[in-house]
Amino acid sequence: QKLLVGLMLSTPRLTVGTGELLPDRRTGDRSHGGDLGLFVREGTLRVTVPGDEGPDGVHHLGPSDGFYVPQGTRYRLANGNATRTTFVFGVAPRYTPEG
Questions:
Q1: Is residue 18 within 8 Å of 88, Cβ to Cβ?
Q2: What is the pLDDT of residue 50?
Q3: pLDDT attached to residue 54
Q4: Using CB atoms within 10 A of its CB, is residue 96 exposed (0-12), middle (13-18) or buried (19+)?
Q5: How far apart are CA 1 and CA 28, in angstroms?
Q6: Which H or E run includes 47?
Q7: Distance in angstroms (rounded) separating the CA atoms of residues 63 and 73
Q8: Is the separation of the CB atoms in 34 and 10 below 8 Å?
């Protein structure tokens, strides 16, 4: 699991940051205490949302593609390519899952 995250802004109502997924890496299950919006800057990103529409809930994103994940929804990110993938994201209101 080689997701590098850099936070640019973190308030009680909004978290904004950047993500970098190195070549041939993937994350485990992730979820947030708010809605997630992300925008791919470079590379390709595979987003898996179990139970979502499409083949096995897999969505393939390229540069300038965006994606939305509702609050509390589990998802995984993967980069199956030989180059890094970078993206920007925002989560509102809470980045951490509610507990």
A1: yes
A2: 85
A3: 63
A4: exposed
A5: 7
A6: strand 45-48
A7: 23
A8: no
Q: Which two tokens stand for residue 23?
A: 């070549």
Buried b (16+ CB within 10 A) or exposed e, 68-86: ebebebebbbbbeeeeebb
Give me the mean pLDDT over the 43-66 stretch: 88
Check residue 92 and give its pLDDT. 97
Integer Cα distance of 18 and 98 in angstroms? 22
Q: Which residue's structure tokens are 């890496």? A: 25
Look at residues 95, 85, 90 and name the one whose alpha carbon lies nearest to residue 67.
90
Which amino acid, one-letter code, is at 15? T
Q: What is the per-residue pLDDT for 90?
A: 98
Half-sphere exposure of 15 (CA within 13 A, CB side): 17
Q: What is the pTM of this model?
A: 0.90
